[in-house]
Specification:
single chain, membrane, transmembrane
Length: 287
Amino acid sequence: MTSDAKPMESDFNGSTTTQSSWMAWLTMPLLLLLGWVIYEVTMLPGLAALFMCLKFGWADFRTAFWLRQTDPNVIRGRACFWMYLTSGVWKVAIMGFAMAILVGILYIAHQENAPPGQLFKREQSAEQLAIGATLTMLAGFGICSLFTLRTILIGRRHQVRYWLSSGTHRDRVQRNWPPRLGQHNDASKILLSGISLISLLILPISTAILIAIMDPIIGPIPVDFLPLLYVFIVLLGVPTVILLLMDWLRKWMIAARPADCWGTDPLPDPKPTKAPPAHPDDVWMQS
């Protein structure tokens, strides 16, 4: 006795997509609620700031894991995973920077209006919140630099062209493969931003090493001149590095459209499952 399993109605009317859309809209309130609960339980505003900043990279994090799990090309899925993960960390770091600035402005604006008895408590909470946001920013920028290197190395090694767009988030929600939504590619912005952060760290260190090597030859450099030299090298070196790598990235690693990254082939059909061997009793009953 055989019977064909009928697809569920949700497979046709898109209720799964609607449910995913509702979950995407609920992510922001849930994370804000989680941040408030963490603050009430732990009384650590810095930890609450971290969870609130995570929201702004949450879509990129989810898309990164979706690409890694869905892409039939394992290497390409891994490369795009690092690309979207880098983008998410970058957004978290930017939000940490914005939150630190906002907390500072609000603290200055409300400092004079606070009652004398609550001034110290409010000042301490604002300070902890600003510290948490600042640490989130610094950690995010550092991690973003490392992830950028990883993304460039794996992409160049396996000749992957990256496509980074908010349209890919809609592809994830709608279960489209290959991803085809989105009009603007932001991959070059994220990669160049990460390269700029790396340059800000490497150029001064390289300059200090070069000065130490050249010191026996040209003599000691005045201490008052060193800060100006570092600023000059950073202002000249970082734009130079960006200009040199911009064309290289666009030529070898940036996709002009989603199909340049993921192609146009749909997901392969799942392998049909073999029917289990007939039981001897079933054969006897059918004969």
